[in-house]
Amino acid sequence: MLDTRHLLLPTRFPPLCRDRLRVLQVNLGYVCNQSCLHCHVGAGPRRTEVMDGGTAARVLDFALRAEVESLDLTGGAPEFNPCFRWLVGDASAAGLKLIDRCNLTVLLEPGQAGLVEFLAAHRVEIVASLPCYLEENVDAQRGRGVFRASIRALRALNDLGYGGDGGPALSLVYNPQGPYLPPPQGPLEADYRRFLWESHGVRFTRLLTLANMPIRRFGSILRSRGALDDYLDLLRSAHRTENLDAVMCRSLLSVDWRGRVYDCDFNQMLDLPLENGGEPLHIRSLSPDRLRGRPIRVAEHCYGCTAGQGSSCGGALSE
Q1: What digits encode the pLDDT tens for the residues 212-256?
Q2: Is residue 315 part of a domain?
Q3: Is residue 317 part of a domain?
Q4: Domain of 181?
C-alpha cells in the first residue's frame, strides 16, 4: 500500500481549536468481512487489531466522566469485537446514545445470530454504508454480492422498526465511486428513498454523504494512478470557510483499538494522535476538562471535510 501521510502533513489548512466534547467515537478494531476500495481504515478479513476488554471499560468510564452525548462505535466492523454487546448494554443502561457504524452484511455473518434484535432492543442508531442504490456500483466498490446481502440486512432492520415512525434511526451513507465530491445531499436522498422503496421495499431515516479521504486504501489508489495531486487540488479549490465552524473534530474525540486518542478518525489512520510532551495520549490518562480549547492537528486531508457542502460523520455540513 502506498502511503500518503508524508504528502499530507505540509499544509496551509486554517488552525482550529476544540470545542465542548459531545461525541466519543471508538474504533473497536480493524477486522472486517469486507475490503472496500474507498476504506480509509484499510480494514479487512486479515486485520487482527481488536480493542480488549480493559481498554473498552476505560473508554466507557471516560465517556461517563466527560458526560458525552453519544458513543459512536466504528471499525472495521465493530460488531466483530467480543466486547461489542456488553459495551452496548452497559452504555445503554447508563443513558448514552449509541451509534453503530455498520456495513450491513456483518448482520448476516455466522456467529451474529440475534444481533439485529439486540441492536433494536437497545435502540442503537444504525449508520450503514450503502455507497449507491444500484447493485453494480455497490458490488464494484465493496465486493460481489454485497448489495443483495445489504438489502437483506436492511429488510431485517425494517422488520424490527428501524427507519420507521417511532423506530430507531437507520441512516445510510453514500460516498463517491472515485476522486470527486459528493453531489448535494438532499436531492440524492430523495433518489435513494424512491429507488430503494420502489425496487426493494426498504425504508430509512436519512442519507449522509461523505467525501473520500486521500488516506490508506483510497489514498494508495490515487497515488498509484498519479491522481493524488489532482484530488488534493480539487479539495483545496472547493474549500468553504463557513464549514470550519461545523467540522466534527471540534466536538468529537476518536479512540483507537489501543486506547490512544485523536481529533478524528482520519487523524487516527494517519497516526496523528493527541500528545502530551511529545508522547501519544491514552484514554486512561486523559482529563475531559483539559480538551476544550486544545489545538486540533490539521493536514491536507482536512480539506475533505470543508470542501463544497462539507463532509463529516454526520453527513453534509451545509446544502
Answers
A1: 999 988 888 999 999 999 999 999 999 999 999 999 999 999 999
A2: no
A3: no
A4: 5-306
